[in-house]
Design goal:
Blueprint lengths: L3 H6 L15 H25 L2 H8 L3 H13 L2 H11 L7 H16 L5 H13 L4 H33 L4 H24 L4 H11 L7 H25 L3 H19 L1 H9 L5 H14 L11 H13 L5 H35 L9 H4 L2
Helix pairs in contact: 2-15, 2-16, 3-16, 4-13, 4-16, 5-6, 5-8, 5-12, 6-7, 6-16, 7-8, 8-9, 8-11, 8-12, 8-14, 10-11, 13-14, 13-16, 14-15, 15-16
């Protein structure tokens, strides 16, 4: 039997974390890169922008508003967990505390990987480990992502219009946002295509790509397993699409609350400092930043995220307030990034502990379906 250390390090032929590669140390490197670049960027911004007025603004920050911003940043992850509960339905029993581990752990694996790709794969894998078949787990995370992306598509034109009107968003950033809109539409189209039965399509795809290997028994067995999970994936997507308007609208509301609580943290901090007149403009700026972050290829958006935040808020705050931008950048990263790493990392360790105890392990097909 594997020990907890074996699960954590992915030891053995059938590594529990094989979806993350054969060398988990790569993820340690991602963590070091994301944190290291962020620290360097924050130090550079702090030295370039902060003076005595910065510390005066920090001194006047009311503690109650800081606590409120922290609560928004942490508690917003309850809504994706509730959304998973709504989507999987009452027949599939997963304890809510395990769903919280899934979303917090997925956030951790997301912020330390390029383009946050580790987030969706991590959530799907963790959800499988807590009880769902691999195809069903991937379908739940995909459907939840579709809801968020649909909200992005609907809101992005309004966000760009407000950003151009209120904070004079540059033409380059406008172009990036429109590219994000195009990619979001492509993703939704792909998911609609995947709602069709994929089992036969997966088999034919592997036969065309690997005609010689398709004749080998072990390879055929692997393809069959993958095709079965692909069928469960498409079937569960259709099942969730047929949940009814009430449950789908509830899932949409939970997604909306998640995004609202994410973008309101820094505006709340500004109000706590006595700059309530910048609340609405800051809200628009946060919408722009949240739309841009997923498309930064560096783990955690480190370096580029801080620079982008600085550039956007330089348009929000009037001249003479540059001393405040560096402080806001530091507080934003503390609330959105470092606190997420600490809490998400704790959830990740709890997941490893559960796996070390052999909690809710599924069929052998599980190990290959999400690779």
């Amino acid at each position: 039997m594997k020990t907890r250390r074996d699960w954590a390090l992915g030891a053995g032929k059938e590594s529990e974390f094989s979806i993350w590669g054969e060398k988990p140390v790569h993820y340690k490197r991602y963590l070091l890169v994301s944190v290291g670049l962020s620290v360097v960027a924050l130090l550079a911004i702090s030295f370039a922008t902060m003076d005595r007025r910065t510390f005066d603004a920090l001194y006047h920050l009311r503690f109650s508003y800081l606590l409120l911003a922290i609560a928004f940043s942490l508690l917003r992850w309850f809504f994706p967990a509730l959304r998973i509960r709504v989507l999987i339905g009452p027949d599939r029993k997963i304890h809510f505390r395990d769903l919280l581990k899934v979303v917090y752990g997925g956030y951790f694996t997301g912020v330390i990987t390029p383009l946050r790709v580790g987030g969706v794969t991590g959530e799907a894998y963790f959800l499988h480990r807590y009880g769902l078949d691999p195809g069903e787990a991937a379908a739940v995370i995909t459907f939840g992502a579709c809801i968020s992306i649909a909200l992005l598509i609907l809101s992005l034109p309004l966000v760009v219009w407000l950003a151009v009107r209120d904070i004079h968003l540059s033409f380059t950033l406008q172009g990036v946002l429109y590219v994000a809109l195009l990619l979001a539409v492509i993703f939704l189209v792909m998911v609609l295509f995947m709602m069709r039965n994929l089992q036969e399509k997966v088999v034919r795809l592997f036969q065309r790509l690997f005609p010689r290997m398709s004749k080998k028994g072990r390879f055929r067995e692997l393809v069959v397993r993958l095709s079965e999970e692909a069928s469960k994936f498409s079937n569960f997507l259709r099942e969730m699409a047929g949940l009814g308007w009430a449950r789908i609208c509830y899932a949409v509301l939970l997604s909306l609350l998640f995004w609202v609580m994410g973008v309101i943290t820094i505006p709340v901090v500004l109000v706590g400092m006595g700059y309530s007149r910048f609340f609405l403009d800051s809200l628009v700026a946060q919408l722009v930043i949240q739309c841009l972050l997923p498309f930064i290829p560096v783990p955690g958006g480190s370096g580029f995220g801080e620079a982008g935040f600085l550039a956007v808020y330089n348009q929000v705050l009037p001249p003479g307030h540059f001393y405040l931008i560096g402080l806001l950048t530091v507080l934003w990263r503390l609330l959105d990034f470092y606190m997420g790493i600490l809490v998400g990392g704790g959830a990740f360790l709890l997941i490893l502990k559960d796996m070390g105890k052999g909690k809710k392990t599924k069929s052998p097909a599980a190990e290959v379906a999400l690779e």
